[in-house]
């Protein structure tokens, strides 16, 4: 397994593309302002409660570092500051942090002096902001130094908007050079130790890698955007779905209309009424059978993830001859996976954090 995993890491940043159209060269994140992200939460702060929801715009700072600065400002321990998910360091991103202040007055925002940080709103709420409590993220991305006519780029962008893109986990999930997967595999198989704070990161990276392998195979055989026997199908909006032992004509039509999408497994132990990994998925992931067995032994729950994602509320505009793409993605999907179908990989800027969870 180790040799197979090491070899696979060399291709982890090069998952097969789904669309045959030519790519443009381009540069993403040349400046932080070229990559804007605004998270969308499922609820707004009410104005009353023991938690302070602090919405900030951060420029060139990573989420965990900002959380530590907020804890210091408020005189809190690290665990008393929470957020819904990580956001890219290399960009201008707006997100909300939750500070637990029971029976306390919040510190003065005027005393919050942190480089690259601007307070957008400070409001009380009755509940803590939890990890994963996220609807999705809105992106506005400027692509510089493209070498394709803008009308062709706009046409290609419209194809992606209408047909969707493979819902790959982005390279941020796997760590530099795939180390989160390599180190996590050694830990999961009992060959190395891992600090407690990294273990959930390792589990996530391994399962994401295995999902991407399944999706890559579906891209190669042309079935990433259609239902095949044994698929679990999820509605485009939300996570509700149904099992397709044999897709019916109505299911096929709904998939063509983008009302439902096929899914693949995030491997683990099945805890529902649906079958565990299908024979097809187990065969495709045979080189990683020991990892799957270890995940199941640890009682890590198997989940489903859509094979495709659609950029929503999509727009294409031009600023000083540079295309600017605006779109919304649901939580868990990666802007880098969208851009990989439009511009060459060398155009993708430095990896940051997940930015989507």
Task: Report what the structure shows.
By secondary structure, this protein is α+β, with helices and mostly antiparallel strands. Among the domains are: 153 residues, Pseudouridine synthase (2-Layer Sandwich), CATH 3.30.2340; 84 residues, Pseudouridine synthase, CATH 3.30.2350. Helix content is 27%, strand content 25%. It is built from nine helices and 15 strands. Strands 1, 2, 3, 4, 5, 6, 7, 14 and 15 form a nine-stranded mixed beta sheet that branches. A four-stranded antiparallel beta sheet has the order 10-9-11-12. A two-stranded antiparallel sheet has the order 8-13. A hairpin with a 5-residue loop joins strand 9 and strand 10. Helix 1 runs antiparallel to helix 4 and helix 4 crosses helix 5. The protein starts with a helix and ends in an 18-residue tail after the last helix.
In short:
By secondary structure, the chain is of the alpha+beta class. Helix content is 27%, strand content 25%.
β-strand amount: 15-25%
- The general outline is globular
The radius of gyration over CA amounts to 21 Å
CATH superfamily of the domain at 2-16 and 172-309: TruD, insertion domain
Major β-sheet annotation: 9 strands, mixed
Uncertain segments are 347-357
Sequence-ordered SSE layout with sheet pairings:
Layout lengths: L1 H8 L17 E2 L6 E6 L10 E9 L3 H12 L6 E3 L8 E9 L16 E9 L10 E9 L5 H14 L1 E2 L12 H10 L7 H25 L10 E5 L5 E4 L4 H8 L3 E7 L12 H6 L4 H9 L5 E4 L1 E2 L2 E8 L2 E9 L4 H5 L18
Parallel strand pairs: 2-5
Antiparallel strand pairs: 1-7, 2-7, 3-5, 3-6, 4-5, 7-15, 8-13, 9-10, 9-11, 11-12, 14-15
Helix pairs in contact: 1-4, 4-5
């Amino acid at each position: 397994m180790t040799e197979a995993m090491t070899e696979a890491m060399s291709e982890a940043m090069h998952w097969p593309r789904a669309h045959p159209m030519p790519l443009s060269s381009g540069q993403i994140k040349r400046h932080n302002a070229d990559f804007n992200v605004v998270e969308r939460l499922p609820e707004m702060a009410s104005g009353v409660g023991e938690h302070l929801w602090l919405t900030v715009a951060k420029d060139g700072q990573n989420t965990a570092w900002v959380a530590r600065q907020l804890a210091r400002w408020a005189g809190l321990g690290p665990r008393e500051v929470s957020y819904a998910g990580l956001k890219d360091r290399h960009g201008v991103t707006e997100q909300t942090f939750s500070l637990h202040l029971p029976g306390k007055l919040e510190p003065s925002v005027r005393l919050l002096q942190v480089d690259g940080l601007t307070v957008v709103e400070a409001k009380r709420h009755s509940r803590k902001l939890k990890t994963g409590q996220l609807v999705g993220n809105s992106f506005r991305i400027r692509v510089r130094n493209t070498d394709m006519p803008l009308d062709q780029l706009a046409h290609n962008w419209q194809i992606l908007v209408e047909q969707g893109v493979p819902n790959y986990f982005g390279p941020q999930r796997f760590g530099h050079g795939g180390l989160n997967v390599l180190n996590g595999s050694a830990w999961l198989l009992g060959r190395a130790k891992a600090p407690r704070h990294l273990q959930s990161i390792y589990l996530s990276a391994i399962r994401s890698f295995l999902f991407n392998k399944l999706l890559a195979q579906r891209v190669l055989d042309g079935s990433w955007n259609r239902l095949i026997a044994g698929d679990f199908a999820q509605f485009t909006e939300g996570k509700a779905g149904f099992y397709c032992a044999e897709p019916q004509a109505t299911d096929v039509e709904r998939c063509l209309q983008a009302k439902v999408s096929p899914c693949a497994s995030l491997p683990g132990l099945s805890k529902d009424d649906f079958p565990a990994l299908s024979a097809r998925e187990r065969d495709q992931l045979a080189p990683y059978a020991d990892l799957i067995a270890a995940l199941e032994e640890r009682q890590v729950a198997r989940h489903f993830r859509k094979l495709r994602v659609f950029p929503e509320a999509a727009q294409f505009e031009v600023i000083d001859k540079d295309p600017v793409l605006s779109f919304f993605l649901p939580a868990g999907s990666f802007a880098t996976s969208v851009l990989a179908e439009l511009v060459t990989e060398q155009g993708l800027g430095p990896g940051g954090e997940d930015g989507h969870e």
